[in-house]
Design goal:
heterodimer, A: ABC transporter involved in vitamin B12 uptake, BtuC, 70% helix, B: mainly alpha, ABC transporter involved in vitamin B12 uptake, BtuC
Chain lengths: 356, 313
């Protein structure tokens, strides 16, 4: 019979092996749906790599796509560290985008070094504000935040649609429900000429580094981790539960809000109701691939972004549906949690009846 | 006044029951999993997979009930995946559930695109028709309401009774409830906690998938992207509202159905003054409200979300 024995300490290489192995396994498993759809498998893989890392254009596209994923990945990683199950990053992303549009489409006239930070702050505040509802419901009514944050996602997207057909509608958009464009002073600068990757990536990386320092090097971070490890022990040790939860929620919602604000101010330039192809949910996968480590979120987001961008290229060239990307991402989530198990536990084969 | 007259129309109540049907299956499935101690957030994806698998099988030539069976089996397969990862392996039920939802959804969407690469309007099937009730149709008010329902709705009602009876009155039900409350006690009776939990999750997931199949095989006759739009999450909220009881699950689902049907009709009555999105938000707001009302007093299964390993004290 098989026994799982918990390792005393997980060696560093092994903690890396789980996500890398999971990513590779998910990519290999991609051959199955490719075969089912009747596509040439080798060419499919070649296109997947070409499209995501095969050229300067491909690389910048992957980085552009990774930007919101770093933010939503951080949103999930920070919250999950404290066992706050914020599954509402999708809604918080839209709230952040909405706030960015409200601030950045001409309501305020200011030079870029004032307006850009203002737009980002507004986005973060809106995302964080949105999460306050579920946190309040959790602490006041004991309502599970998983369900409330998930349901809020649908409410927020409907609200965004309502705003885009109503007060925020661009009168020049010929009936298309989209916001007015961001003013030039509110737009995040491009990092590479004529490519779509923008300064939002630097903000995202800075947030990841800051979260790492906060979690690993400060008292607040210690309290957050303590609440996640064992709420009872943390309470006994005198960690302020309400305050810690609130801080985690502000961070998590804020990051998700930044994802939306940066998409609007850096990539799209205006808001539509299809801004996010599920970045909020993909952020959960990013966080798990990263092992909930803020620094790990950066490579994990690049991987997931590469899958999305590569699948788009593949879809354009050989007509395989780009839902393949969602499939790979979902498989990598399941692979990484199983892989994590094998990293944390040692598998021993024991004869039935024998002492382990 | 018009707003109140809606409540007197049989067509309104017929719609309420129609909207409630998939939720009845979903809440029953969710409560079965949770009674055994396993939160199944795969529900949203299992709904999609059931809707897709049932509809596709009928499209490819299976009889309607064959489609329902395929949907149930598809749900059971995803349930087994969730069960293997969360019960013997003890992985986080939250994360695994989200993973199952992402996997089931993307597999269904990808499968749909493989089967129909270039369709613009979704292909249709011959869906379930309302069941002929014979003389019962003549009952005033109630007759016309019930006469509009299909066999799957009646199956949902039957499942409420069956799940209720099994949970409350049988050894098996007792064992399911016990593994969700006190798994160690079950093991001391010589029963396998792992097997009972996994069985409950598989059965519950099959029920969820039939709820999804109702949408493509009875409510509509085609599969659309995004057609589930949070119905699974609504079920998770309603499960708390129902305090994990099948009878109350039926009440909760019907309340939700009535509320949703009411907002759809109010939309027409209001004549476009209020933006349609306000009405579309109401069912989600209703679900959150239902959760808040119940959460305070909720008597969660005591071992919910706690993995159990053999020999553990």
């Amino acid at each position: 019979m098989i026994r799982f024995v918990r390792r005393e300490a997980v060696p560093f290489w092994l903690s890396l092996a789980a996500p890398v192995g999971a990513g590779l396994a998910a990519l290999l498993l991609t051959a199955v749906p490719l075969a089912i759809s009747g596509a040439p498998i080798g060419r499919g893989f070649a296109l997947l790599f070409e499209g995501s890392v095969g050229s300067v254009f491909a690389l910048t596209e992957t980085m552009a796509r990774a930007t919101p994923l770093i933010f939503t990945g951080l949103a999930a990683a920070v919250a999950f560290r404290a066992k706050l199950w914020n599954i509402g990053a999708e809604g918080q992303l839209y709230a952040g985008a909405l706030a960015a549009v409200v601030v950045g489409t001409g309501a305020i006239a200011a030079p870029p070094f004032v307006l850009v930070p203002l737009v980002l702050l507004a986005g973060a505040a809106a995302g964080a504000g949105l999460l306050m509802g579920p946190v309040f419901f959790k602490s006041r009514f004991g309502a599970d935040e998983v369900v409330t944050t998930l349901l809020m996602n649908f409410i927020v997207i409907l609200f965004v649609q309502m705003m885009l057909e109503g007060p925020l509608k661009d009168p020049l958009s010929l009936g298309w429900p989209q916001s007015e464009p961001m003013v030039d002073e509110a737009v995040l600068p491009k990092l590479v000429d004529r490519m779509r990757v923008h300064a939002g990536l630097l903000v995202a990386i800075a947030c990841a580094i800051a979260s790492h320092v906060l979690l690993e090097r400060t008292l607040w971070g210690f309290q957050i981790r303590a609440v996640g490890e064992s709420a009872a022990a943390a309470r006994y040790a005198g960690v302020p539960m309400g305050g810690t939860l609130l801080r985690v929620a502000l961070l998590s919602g804020g990051f998700a809000g930044l994802a939306g604000a940066c998409e609007v101010a850096g990539l799209k330039g205006y808001l539509t109701a299809d801004l996010s192809p599920g970045y909020g949910y993909a952020g959960i996968v990013v966080a798990m691939l990263a092992g909930l480590s803020p620094l790990g979120v950066i490579p994990a987001a690049l991987f997931v972004a590469g899958v999305f961008v590569g699948a788009d290229t593949m879809s354009r060239s050989i007509g395989v549906s780009n839902y393949l990307a969602d499939l790979v991402v979902a498989m990598s989530l399941l692979c990484v949690i199983v892989g994590g198990l094998f990293a944390r536990y040692e598998v021993r084969f024991v004869r039935r009846g024998a002492q382990a | 006044m018009e707003a109140l007259e809606i409540l007197l129309q049989p067509s309104f109540w017929a719609a309420a029951i129609r909207i409630a049907t998939p939720l009845i299956f979903g809440v029953l499935g969710a409560l079965l999993c949770e009674r055994a101690g396993v939160l199944n957030l795969g529900i949203e994806g299992i709904f999609v997979a059931g809707a897709m698998a049932g509809w596709l099988s009928v499209y490819l030539g299976l009889p309607l009930w064959g489609g329902v069976a395929v949907a149930a089996l598809t749900g059971a397969a995803f349930g087994l995946l969730h069960a293997v990862l969360t019960v013997p392996l003890g992985l986080s039920q939250h994360v695994t559930g989200i993973g199952v939802t992402l996997l089931a959804t993307s597999m269904s969407y990808f499968g749909y695109r493989v089967a129909f690469p270039n369709v613009t309007s979704p292909p249709r099937i011959e869906a379930f028709r309302p069941l002929d009730l014979g003389p019962l149709r003549e009952i005033p008010f109630v007759g016309p309401i019930l006469a509009q329902q299909t066999a799957l709705t009646w199956l949902a009602f039957a499942c409420v009774a069956v799940v209720g009876l099994v949970l409350a009155r049988t050894q098996l039900g007792l064992a399911v409830r016990a593994v969700g409350d006190n798994p160690a006690a079950v093991e001391s009776q010589g029963l396998s906690v792992t097997a009972i939990r996994m069985g409950a999750v598989v059965a519950g997931s099959a029920l969820m998938a039939v709820g999804g199949a109702f949408l493509t095989m009875s409510a509509f006759n085609a599969f659309f992207f995004g057609m589930i739009s949070g119905r699974g999450w609504v079920c998770i909220a309603l499960t708390v509202f129902a305090s994990w009881r099948p009878g109350k699950a039926l009440v909760g689902a019907l309340l939700f159905g009535a509320f949703d049907a009411y907002q759809l009709r109010l939309q027409t009555v209001s004549g476009g003054v209020v933006p349609s999105q306000i009405f579309l938000m109401l069912p989600y707001v209703f679900s959150i409200a239902a959760l808040l009302v119940a959460a305070r007093r909720a008597d969660y299964p005591r071992a919910l979300m706690q993995p159990y390993f053999k020999g553990q004290r």
